[in-house]
Amino acid sequence: MTWLVDQFTILGNVFYYLIQTVHWTILISVLAYLIALIFGLVFGILRLSLSRPVRWLASAYVNVIRGVPLLVLIFFIYFGLGKIVNLDRFVAGVLAVGICYGAYLAEIFRSGIQAIDYGQHEAAMSLGMTRWQTMRHIILPQSVRIVVPPAANEFIACLKDSSLVSIIGLRELTRAGREYSSQYFLDFQTWLVVGIIYLILTLTLTQLVKVIERRVAVHGYGVEKK
Amino acid sequence: MIIEMNDVVCRFGVLAALDHLSLTVEKGEVVCIIGPSGSGKSTLLRCLNALEDIQEGSIEIEGLRLDRQHKDIHKIRLDVGMVFQQFNLFPHLNALDNVNLAQIVVRGRTRYEATVISKELLGKVGLTDKIDSYPSQLSGGQKQRVAIARALAMNPKVMLFDEATSALDPEMIGEVLEVMKQLAREGMTMLVVTHEIGFAREVAHRILFLENGRIVEEGPPQELLTSPKNQRTREFLAKVL
Hints:
The structure holds 2 protein chains of 2 kinds.
Chain A: H1 2-19, H2 22-46, H3 52-67, H4 70-84, H5 89-114, H6 118-126, H7 131-161, H8 173-184, H9 187-217
Helix pairs in contact in A: 1-8, 1-9, 2-5, 2-7, 3-5, 4-5, 5-7, 6-7, 7-9, 8-9
Chain B: E1 3-12, E2 15-25, E3 30-34, H1 41-48, E4 56-61, E5 64-65, H2 73-77, E6 80-83, H3 95-105, H4 111-124, H5 140-152, E7 158-162, H6 170-185, E8 189-193, H7 197-203, E9 206-211, E10 214-219, H8 221-226, H9 231-240
Parallel strand pairs in B: 3-8, 3-9, 6-7, 7-8
Antiparallel strand pairs in B: 1-2, 1-4, 4-5, 9-10
Helix pairs in contact in B: 3-4, 3-5, 4-5, 5-6
């Protein structure tokens, strides 16, 4: 009985210690995701550009970044680029995760734009709209509905992958877990609690995504679930 | 004349959808285009709205040459309204905003000005009570009438109808044709690709029979429908009448 109480006390202590760093995990993921949204939107649209070099450049970004492990990207930006410009580990970490997820989001945005029936482009053009006006007023507002669920899921993945920046000494949740376990040799309990905290975060987000999905699905779109 | 097509060739790969086709349309004329599927009827309309590239010949709308590569093509296109078989309403906007949007974005009207015009046009096509409805809440016939109002809102000089009633349930065809008849009576220049021979007989000034990207025969409805000269026209009409 006392053994069980002891164990829960330990878990409680670990939890109390770790939860104080969780805001760093959240901050890193949110900032990285914002960067990813901008990169994703810009490159997603550029991939559909009429100009071949622009298209080529955009798909080069997507293919290169998707083909390189995030960990390598983190090392490259922090240690590699860090040799040229002085990069704070926070900036480097956020940038690496953001650039990486920007490539994934670019693909999601591109497919969301391409999923819109070509008749919508033709109708807009026949009304005298330019390509950009068509994109802005007709295509993007409809793509949002298609894009939101997968894009929101990318945020969950982004949050989990933010643990990788612990490697360059950014003191977020995973880093704190490493410190705690090496200090008290409570590996089992520490990593159990780290896992549980990530799980709480991702499960909460999953519920949030469902709410958002329902929100964007209404608004008189198509014939699907109303 | 308002439309002048001169020796136009439009190819998809090796297939010539329009094969050295020439056509002139006068202001206020209603021209109905009939013919078997694949004869180039839709392509003809789509070329007039620069939705397809032409490889040879030229198209002029009110003296302005239609060139898809021209950077101001969207402005030249403004004079040509198009109604599609599949309506192509914007599903994220209600009926009013479907008609409003291009007026505001392209014509530069204020929201208030546009709304006045849209309400008048939606009233004209009999949809005053559907102004707030989204396309998903409208029947096919209602959608197509919104689409007509949307095209008219840009004050086009020519209206193109690409099988505007082909995707509709039979009992909804009438309400759309009625709107089109009214437009014709008001003197709108119209090119109508249709399978509604009765409509063509009643409204058209001229009917074209197309096959293999060429105009096989043309003439006023009475002449072409009752005593076609060409063998192919006779065969086609025997099947559809």
